[in-house]
Amino acid sequence: MMHKSDIVIKKINNNIIFYDKDNEKNIEQLFLEGRFITKEINNVEFIDNDNWIKKHYFRKGTMAFLKDKYLRCTEITNTRSYKEFKILNYLTKKNFNTCKPVVGWTYFSSGIFYQANLVVENIKDTRTLAEELKLLQIDSQSVSVSLICDRYTALGKQVANLHLAGVYHGDLNLHNILINKYDDKHKIITSDDIHIIDFDKSDIKIITNKDKILNTNRLMRSFKKLNLFSDFNFDFFQEGYKSIIDNF
What pTM did the predictor assign? Predict the structure, then answer.
Protein backbone atom coordinates (compact mmCIF):
# COMPACT_ATOMS: atom_id res chain seq x y z
CA MET A 1 0.00 0.00 0.00
CA MET A 2 1.12 3.57 -0.67
CA HIS A 3 2.01 5.59 2.40
CA LYS A 4 0.83 9.11 3.04
CA SER A 5 4.50 10.19 3.07
CA ASP A 6 4.66 9.56 -0.69
CA ILE A 7 2.60 12.72 -1.14
CA VAL A 8 4.04 16.15 -0.39
CA ILE A 9 1.57 18.74 0.93
CA LYS A 10 2.55 22.41 0.76
CA LYS A 11 0.75 25.71 1.28
CA ILE A 12 1.37 28.32 -1.42
CA ASN A 13 -0.45 31.59 -0.83
CA ASN A 14 -4.11 30.60 -0.30
CA ASN A 15 -3.66 27.21 -2.00
CA ILE A 16 -2.76 23.86 -0.51
CA ILE A 17 -1.06 21.78 -3.19
CA PHE A 18 -0.04 18.12 -3.19
CA TYR A 19 2.15 16.02 -5.46
CA ASP A 20 4.23 12.87 -5.38
CA LYS A 21 7.62 13.35 -3.71
CA ASP A 22 9.35 11.49 -6.57
CA ASN A 23 7.90 13.66 -9.34
CA GLU A 24 10.81 14.73 -11.55
CA LYS A 25 9.15 18.09 -12.30
CA ASN A 26 9.54 21.11 -10.02
CA ILE A 27 5.84 21.20 -9.19
CA GLU A 28 6.04 24.11 -6.78
CA GLN A 29 7.86 26.29 -9.31
CA LEU A 30 5.40 25.37 -12.06
CA PHE A 31 2.56 26.26 -9.72
CA LEU A 32 4.10 29.63 -8.87
CA GLU A 33 4.59 30.32 -12.59
CA GLY A 34 0.86 29.76 -13.14
CA ARG A 35 1.33 26.79 -15.48
CA PHE A 36 -1.77 25.09 -14.06
CA ILE A 37 -4.00 28.17 -13.86
CA THR A 38 -7.12 28.49 -16.05
CA LYS A 39 -10.46 30.29 -15.76
CA GLU A 40 -11.91 27.12 -14.18
CA ILE A 41 -15.28 27.39 -15.86
CA ASN A 42 -15.14 23.86 -17.30
CA ASN A 43 -15.06 20.52 -15.52
CA VAL A 44 -12.28 19.23 -17.80
CA GLU A 45 -9.70 21.17 -19.85
CA PHE A 46 -6.65 20.21 -21.90
CA ILE A 47 -3.63 22.34 -20.96
CA ASP A 48 0.13 22.49 -21.67
CA ASN A 49 -0.36 21.74 -25.39
CA ASP A 50 -2.66 18.82 -24.53
CA ASN A 51 0.02 17.11 -22.43
CA TRP A 52 -2.02 17.56 -19.27
CA ILE A 53 -5.70 17.40 -18.38
CA LYS A 54 -7.03 19.70 -15.69
CA LYS A 55 -10.11 18.73 -13.72
CA HIS A 56 -12.01 21.42 -11.82
CA TYR A 57 -14.50 19.77 -9.50
CA PHE A 58 -18.18 20.65 -9.85
CA ARG A 59 -21.09 19.39 -7.83
CA LYS A 60 -23.82 17.31 -9.42
CA GLY A 61 -27.27 16.13 -8.41
CA THR A 62 -29.24 17.84 -5.66
CA MET A 63 -26.25 19.97 -4.59
CA ALA A 64 -25.51 21.26 -8.11
CA PHE A 65 -26.69 24.74 -7.09
CA LEU A 66 -23.40 25.12 -5.16
CA LYS A 67 -21.51 24.65 -8.47
CA ASP A 68 -17.81 24.22 -7.60
CA LYS A 69 -18.03 24.94 -3.89
CA TYR A 70 -17.57 22.19 -1.27
CA LEU A 71 -17.93 22.41 2.48
CA ARG A 72 -14.54 22.96 4.04
CA CYS A 73 -12.89 19.81 5.43
CA THR A 74 -10.93 19.69 8.65
CA GLU A 75 -8.20 17.71 6.86
CA ILE A 76 -6.84 18.29 3.34
CA THR A 77 -6.78 14.51 2.93
CA ASN A 78 -10.59 14.50 3.00
CA THR A 79 -10.99 16.83 0.00
CA ARG A 80 -12.22 15.49 -3.34
CA SER A 81 -9.05 16.32 -5.27
CA TYR A 82 -6.70 14.81 -2.67
CA LYS A 83 -8.67 11.56 -2.50
CA GLU A 84 -8.59 11.14 -6.28
CA PHE A 85 -4.91 12.12 -6.46
CA LYS A 86 -4.10 9.49 -3.84
CA ILE A 87 -5.86 6.72 -5.77
CA LEU A 88 -4.26 7.67 -9.09
CA ASN A 89 -0.84 7.89 -7.47
CA TYR A 90 -1.35 4.51 -5.82
CA LEU A 91 -2.40 2.85 -9.10
CA THR A 92 0.41 4.49 -11.07
CA LYS A 93 2.95 3.07 -8.63
CA LYS A 94 1.39 -0.35 -9.23
CA ASN A 95 1.82 0.14 -13.01
CA PHE A 96 -1.92 0.04 -13.54
CA ASN A 97 -3.10 1.76 -16.73
CA THR A 98 -4.58 5.09 -15.66
CA CYS A 99 -3.81 8.82 -15.79
CA LYS A 100 -0.61 9.67 -13.92
CA PRO A 101 -1.36 12.52 -11.50
CA VAL A 102 0.80 15.65 -11.74
CA VAL A 103 -0.56 17.91 -9.00
CA GLY A 104 -3.73 18.58 -7.07
CA TRP A 105 -4.77 21.55 -4.97
CA THR A 106 -7.55 23.19 -3.06
CA TYR A 107 -8.15 26.81 -2.21
CA PHE A 108 -10.56 28.43 0.16
CA SER A 109 -13.01 30.87 -1.39
CA SER A 110 -14.67 31.71 1.91
CA GLY A 111 -14.74 30.59 5.50
CA ILE A 112 -16.83 27.47 4.94
CA PHE A 113 -16.12 26.47 1.31
CA TYR A 114 -13.21 25.14 -0.72
CA GLN A 115 -12.69 24.60 -4.45
CA ALA A 116 -10.64 21.78 -5.88
CA ASN A 117 -8.46 20.97 -8.89
CA LEU A 118 -6.45 18.06 -10.21
CA VAL A 119 -3.97 17.88 -13.11
CA VAL A 120 -3.09 14.54 -14.69
CA GLU A 121 -1.05 13.46 -17.68
CA ASN A 122 -3.04 13.02 -20.88
CA ILE A 123 -3.15 9.46 -22.23
CA LYS A 124 -2.74 10.14 -25.93
CA ASP A 125 -3.75 7.99 -28.90
CA THR A 126 -6.78 6.60 -27.10
CA ARG A 127 -10.55 6.87 -27.41
CA THR A 128 -13.28 6.04 -24.94
CA LEU A 129 -14.58 2.49 -25.01
CA ALA A 130 -17.99 3.94 -25.88
CA GLU A 131 -16.50 5.51 -29.03
CA GLU A 132 -14.60 2.33 -29.87
CA LEU A 133 -17.64 0.06 -29.64
CA LYS A 134 -19.82 2.45 -31.63
CA LEU A 135 -17.21 2.48 -34.42
CA LEU A 136 -17.13 -1.31 -34.41
CA GLN A 137 -20.91 -1.33 -34.51
CA ILE A 138 -20.85 0.85 -37.62
CA ASP A 139 -18.18 -1.36 -39.24
CA SER A 140 -19.78 -4.59 -38.07
CA GLN A 141 -19.79 -6.12 -41.57
CA SER A 142 -16.00 -5.84 -41.85
CA VAL A 143 -15.11 -6.68 -38.23
CA SER A 144 -15.13 -10.24 -36.98
CA VAL A 145 -17.12 -11.21 -33.90
CA SER A 146 -13.95 -12.51 -32.26
CA LEU A 147 -12.30 -9.07 -32.40
CA ILE A 148 -15.28 -7.47 -30.68
CA CYS A 149 -15.24 -10.20 -28.04
CA ASP A 150 -11.52 -9.59 -27.49
CA ARG A 151 -12.36 -6.09 -26.32
CA TYR A 152 -14.91 -7.36 -23.82
CA THR A 153 -12.49 -10.00 -22.54
CA ALA A 154 -9.71 -7.40 -22.20
CA LEU A 155 -12.06 -5.10 -20.29
CA GLY A 156 -13.06 -7.89 -17.92
CA LYS A 157 -9.42 -8.66 -17.19
CA GLN A 158 -8.57 -5.03 -16.53
CA VAL A 159 -11.51 -4.50 -14.17
CA ALA A 160 -10.35 -7.63 -12.33
CA ASN A 161 -6.83 -6.19 -12.14
CA LEU A 162 -8.31 -3.02 -10.65
CA HIS A 163 -10.13 -4.99 -7.97
CA LEU A 164 -7.04 -7.07 -7.22
CA ALA A 165 -5.19 -3.79 -6.68
CA GLY A 166 -7.79 -3.01 -4.02
CA VAL A 167 -9.61 -0.15 -5.75
CA TYR A 168 -13.36 0.29 -6.01
CA HIS A 169 -14.43 2.60 -8.85
CA GLY A 170 -17.17 5.09 -7.96
CA ASP A 171 -18.58 5.38 -11.50
CA LEU A 172 -17.40 2.62 -13.82
CA ASN A 173 -18.90 3.48 -17.19
CA LEU A 174 -17.84 3.37 -20.84
CA HIS A 175 -16.80 7.02 -20.85
CA ASN A 176 -14.33 6.40 -18.00
CA ILE A 177 -12.60 3.60 -19.88
CA LEU A 178 -10.06 4.38 -22.60
CA ILE A 179 -8.71 2.02 -25.24
CA ASN A 180 -5.58 2.44 -27.34
CA LYS A 181 -6.19 3.51 -30.96
CA TYR A 182 -4.57 1.55 -33.77
CA ASP A 183 -4.64 2.14 -37.51
CA ASP A 184 -5.33 -1.57 -37.91
CA LYS A 185 -8.87 -2.04 -36.63
CA HIS A 186 -8.36 -5.80 -36.81
CA LYS A 187 -5.59 -5.73 -34.19
CA ILE A 188 -6.17 -8.00 -31.23
CA ILE A 189 -6.77 -5.98 -28.07
CA THR A 190 -5.51 -7.07 -24.65
CA SER A 191 -5.91 -5.70 -21.12
CA ASP A 192 -2.68 -3.72 -21.67
CA ASP A 193 -4.66 -1.57 -24.13
CA ILE A 194 -7.33 -0.68 -21.55
CA HIS A 195 -7.02 2.39 -19.28
CA ILE A 196 -9.49 3.12 -16.48
CA ILE A 197 -9.78 6.77 -15.43
CA ASP A 198 -11.82 9.23 -13.32
CA PHE A 199 -11.59 7.95 -9.75
CA ASP A 200 -13.68 10.64 -8.06
CA LYS A 201 -15.76 9.09 -5.26
CA SER A 202 -13.69 5.88 -5.49
CA ASP A 203 -11.81 4.13 -2.71
CA ILE A 204 -8.78 1.99 -1.87
CA LYS A 205 -10.20 -0.87 0.17
CA ILE A 206 -10.66 -4.61 0.53
CA ILE A 207 -12.92 -5.43 -2.41
CA THR A 208 -16.00 -7.39 -1.40
CA ASN A 209 -18.40 -9.40 -3.55
CA LYS A 210 -20.86 -6.54 -3.17
CA ASP A 211 -18.26 -4.11 -4.59
CA LYS A 212 -17.66 -6.41 -7.56
CA ILE A 213 -21.39 -6.66 -8.25
CA LEU A 214 -21.89 -2.88 -7.92
CA ASN A 215 -19.09 -2.15 -10.41
CA THR A 216 -20.34 -4.80 -12.84
CA ASN A 217 -23.94 -3.60 -12.64
CA ARG A 218 -22.89 0.03 -13.16
CA LEU A 219 -20.93 -1.01 -16.24
CA MET A 220 -23.88 -3.00 -17.55
CA ARG A 221 -26.17 0.02 -17.17
CA SER A 222 -23.69 2.07 -19.18
CA PHE A 223 -23.75 -0.49 -22.01
CA LYS A 224 -27.55 -0.47 -21.99
CA LYS A 225 -27.85 3.32 -21.88
CA LEU A 226 -25.68 3.57 -25.02
CA ASN A 227 -27.54 0.72 -26.76
CA LEU A 228 -24.36 -1.35 -26.80
CA PHE A 229 -25.40 -4.20 -24.51
CA SER A 230 -25.79 -7.82 -25.53
CA ASP A 231 -25.77 -10.85 -23.27
CA PHE A 232 -23.47 -12.65 -25.71
CA ASN A 233 -20.78 -9.93 -25.61
CA PHE A 234 -21.09 -9.29 -21.88
CA ASP A 235 -20.44 -12.98 -21.20
CA PHE A 236 -16.93 -12.39 -22.56
CA PHE A 237 -16.47 -9.57 -20.06
CA GLN A 238 -17.49 -11.95 -17.27
CA GLU A 239 -15.16 -14.68 -18.57
CA GLY A 240 -12.24 -12.24 -18.79
CA TYR A 241 -12.93 -11.05 -15.25
CA LYS A 242 -13.10 -14.60 -13.85
CA SER A 243 -9.95 -15.69 -15.68
CA ILE A 244 -7.96 -13.19 -13.58
CA ILE A 245 -9.85 -13.34 -10.28
CA ASP A 246 -9.98 -17.13 -10.14
CA ASN A 247 -6.20 -17.36 -10.43
CA PHE A 248 -5.68 -15.42 -7.18
Answer: 0.94
